[in-house]
Amino acid sequence: MRSSFTYYIKGLIFITIISVLTGCYKFEGDQTIPAYVSINSINIDTYYPEQGSNSSNISDVWVYMDDALIGIYDFKPIDSVNNAGDTIKAVIFPVLASGTHKLEIRAGIKLNGISSTRAPYPFYKPIVYDNFEFVPGTTKALGNITTTYLSTTKFAWLEDFEGADITFTKIDVCELCDTNIMKTSPANNPIAYLSTNSKYSGIINLTEDRYEYGGTSYNSFDIPTQGSYTLLEMDFKTNNYLSVGVLIRDQYEFVEKQLVILNPTDEWKKIYINLGSNLSYYPLAYDYSVIFRAGLEDDNTEAEILIDNIKVAYR
Q: How far is CA 304 from CA 212, 239, 248, 260, 265, in A?
């Protein structure tokens, strides 16, 4: 039986397509002049010791009025830059409403980094304005808004490479070509993901002599209840392809499922990877671990793969 999360995602994809095709919605009455709402960004506030980094990649907002979905809107570049010279993104959306209504904003992501599988992130708390005043012909600016993880969110794995030990274990790839994941050095090395709580990142170096990497999370995790949400978050920067998947300990064997291949990028990116839909096919399995694999590309003599802020979240 497919998990409810699989049907949930398919339903959201359908809604997304309809929203893109229609671009608007009907409102009771003869109102033709919308009210507008703008958002500069959605930030995540975390309790670092228990929830890890506050890094995020919010690509869009899901907007609900009086508990009904009225649209999905992307953050798009505007004609402005910040002090660092980066292009600023924002979202502005119309609402055919007047007077006081309930407005709900949910932070949207691209599951597995794919634009066609957008969804509101199930572990972020919706931002709710119970008595939002809509005034046709005007724009209300919400600015930079902040959300948190839902209190029911649990974390099976947190690895930010700040501790003394790294919660990875190497798997046998071959006797002479294997390498290992290390911490960047020294502290605050500019190649690392640097932030208030981050001075180090994980690094995998591939060379012609050591041209393959295979590693899993040190611990294995319980198979989630059928239909529950389980996602992997991580930041990465790499000049080589990196495969991410799950290694499932079924009743009689280990089953490896490749989920995504991360493409080379010269800047840090964040991805949210859906684990639950694959794990639900093995309801009798004992447990699973997250597996990473990489092999030096034919035209490269060396490669540098950086990862950070790994989380396996479930609810």
A: 12, 6, 28, 19, 11
Provide the residue type at 26 as one letter. K
The region, left, alpha or beta by phi > 0 then psi within -120 to 50, assigned to residue 29 is left
Distance (Å, rounded) from C-alpha 242 to C-alpha 238?
8
Of 314, 312, 1, nearest to 158 by C-alpha is 312
Answer positive or negative: Cα dihedral of 168, 172, 173, 178.
Answer: positive
Residue with structure tokens 């995540």? 44
Query: Which tens digits make up the pLDDT trace of 17-51?
Result: 444 433 444 445 566 899 999 999 999 999 999 99
Residue 216 near residue 291 (C-beta atoms within 8 A) = yes
Angle at alpha carbon of residue 264, lines to 263 and 269, rounded to 5°: 80
Cα–Cα distance between 259 and 221 in angstroms, integer?
17
Q: How many CA atoms lie within 13 A of 48 on its CB side?
A: 10
Stated pTM of the model = 0.86
* Eight-state DSSP code of residue 223: P
Q: Is 43 exposed, middle or buried (0-12, 13-18, 19+ CB in 10 A)?
A: middle
Distance of CA 20 to the CA centre of its chain: 22
**How far does Cα 247 stand from its chain's mean position?**
20
